[in-house]
Design brief:
single chain; 242 residues; mainly alpha; 9 helices
Length: 242
């Protein structure tokens, strides 16, 4: 199983499910784009002109904005896993069913720990961050599709990557860079069309998430399933052995 094969599988999965994935992304990220745009406006506020009570309210609003955005990301990544696994089974669950079944607490913990570990690794001369990204990028999909705990999700990710480090790196690192490039492009498009105002920032934030998030989410879910299969284990959504 090489990187080229994995890219073909990722592209085929994305093309097959693009309509549903983009529709869900629009449902999730159009309102979240407004929340993010409002958060950007908070950054421009002159704190010296505010009272202590207003500063507290501003801080609470910023925390709420961050928490809402994180929940949106977690829900969407879970929805991607559910869509892909459902397609393998020949059916789809509703968004309400997906929302009800997601292990939000574990996924948020994994997201925060992964982001922190990657950031620390990048600060340590960059290379440790790339190694961390490669070994643990599959922690969230492991939690989502195998219903594992937080620590077990990270352990499972490392277990799946072991022996295939360079193959996983050749997929995860370019996809991460590509998603980041799409994010920058989406933000620029929004402001170029509508200007540096609330509407422009809303459009930019929405385009960023709708275009970039599905790319990364599909890649890590497909990669996780492929590595489970490569170990000779029954993959999520496959038929049980007779």
């Amino acid at each position: 199983m090489g990187a080229i094969h994995l890219y073909r599988r990722i592209v085929a999965t994305y093309r097959a499910e693009a309509g549903r994935l983009l529709a869900i992304a629009a449902i999730v990220f159009i309102p979240l784009g407004l929340v993010e745009a409002l958060g950007e406006k908070l950054v421009d506020v002159d704190l010296e002109s505010l009272s202590e009570l207003e500063i507290i309210a501003l801080a609470a609003g910023a925390l709420a904005q961050g928490g809402t955005a994180l929940l949106g990301e977690v829900f969407y990544s879970g929805a991607v896993a559910a869509v892909i696994i459902g397609a393998r089974k020949g059916g789809h669950r509703s968004l309400r069913e997906i929302a009800r079944e997601l292990p939000y607490g574990r996924l948020i913990a994994v997201d925060l720990l992964f982001s922190l570990g990657f950031a620390i690794g990048v600060l340590l001369l960059f290379i440790p961050g790339i190694v961390f990204l490669t070994y643990y990028a599959l922690a969230a999909p492991a939690v989502e599709i195998e219903r594992r705990g937080v620590r077990d999700g990270f352990r499972r990710s490392r277990e799946l990557v072991r022996g295939r480090f360079w193959t996983v790196l050749a997929v995860v690192f370019p996809v991460t860079l590509g998603a980041e490039a799409l994010s920058e492009a989406g933000g620029s498009v929004g402001e170029s069309l509508l200007g540096h105002n609330l509407l422009g920032q809303w459009l930019g934030a929405t385009l960023v998430e709708i275009v970039a998030t599905p790319v990364y989410a599909v890649a890590v879910v497909v990669l996780t399933i492929a590595l489970i299969e490569a170990r000779g284990e029954r993959s999520p959504g496959s038929a049980p052995a007779d």
